[in-house]
Design goal:
The complex is a heterodimer of chains A (about 200) and B (about 240). Chain A is mostly helical and about 200 residues long. Chain A has 9 helices and no strands. The chains are: A mainly alpha (about 200), B mainly alpha (about 240).
Chain lengths: ~200, ~240
Amino acid sequence: MKHLTFSRLSVYASVVFAVALCPAPARAHLNSTGMGPIYDGLMHFFMSPEDLVPVLALALWVGLRGASYGRRALFVLPGAWLLGGLLGLTASAMNGSPVLSSIWFLLLGGFVAADAKLSLRVATAVATLLGLSHGYLNGTGMGTSGSAAVALLGLVFAVFVLVALSSAFVVRLRVQWARIAVRVAGSWITASGLLLLGWAVRKG
Amino acid sequence: MRNPKGGATASPLCTESVFPHCDTASKGGEIKKSPRPLGERVRVRGNLQLWILTFAIFIFALYPSYVFAHVQQGEATGFLTGLRHPISGLDHVLAMVAVGLWGAQLGAPAIWLLPVAFPMVMAMGAMLGLMGLPLPGIEYGIAASAILLGAAVMFEVRPPLAAAAILVGFFAIFHGHAHGTELPPGQSALLYSMGFVMATGCLHAVGIGIGTVHRWSWGQTVLRVAGAVVAMGGIFFMWKAFA
């Protein structure tokens, strides 16, 4: 076994000593530092069910339809989201409508539950519309600071990852009961959308 | 390798502390093996630990509390309230489980069509309630759902698929109207709705899980008994509604 020589050990010790002389705050608690704009955007997406669930529903639907649909949505949806977000950054702030969210829940959840056999063009159009509308709403809520655009990138990255993982997971499902389980999840999304619509109507 | 007394020598690794199954005799260094091999003992011990761990997690899961882990105000409670609401009323639980049991009895495609139809129609019933449309006799409808669905399981009724879906959907409106509109103030409507629908779906899944015993003859009897229990529960709730 090779042992450290005294001279090498002393070099290591000197380096460690030098580093120890220049401490920096650990900032182990994120409430003082934040997570940085990229992670802010990323976490915003995962903490916002009104954004997350429609994307998940779209990913499940294109996954049920096959790999070509999945590949199309994988690039179209984040691209449209980014475009919509950049447009939204220049617009004045506006709040998302619960009615609009519920419509996306109903539409995409319904597609999953029914395993809707629509063409690739329709799937592309749906992904584009979803990305533009939600991206625009996200963009308007982010303000105009430079970090908002970076946060938008994090958000788009999160959309990409969710679509990639979810649609790839569904594409490889071959057993019938597993595909039915995905469709049941779609019916749950539709039911949630119906309830949300009811709440929106009651509030309005 | 020999020991000083000339007997067979145990491996230096084969000590009580390292390999408990290796029992080195004091006389002559003979190696005696315990009747159960090491692999089996490790497996048994591993299984026991797994069971203890599972049991402990189960016990903890019975006593949940709020986390409030830096989410927006009321969102976590909205989801948890929705998740807890369907299981807080026994009338609702009985009917949900009965839908799953009946679906399992009827087999495909009813096994998945009924649990898909129920939450969607239930949400429609809740939406009607939220829009202020009155529905008379809700409590009677809920009790009747447990009676009829329990009876359907008890007698293994096999109507056409559409008739079964319509029956389940009809009762779902009552359940949705009664339970889907009770959002506590200040909580997220969306997360409440998602929790509510997910809990309902999970109750169906429990029913389907229990219903898988239908493949055995004894299981068919068990299911019929379960249907009778559900129907009796429904009669009890009907009596309470009238009282």
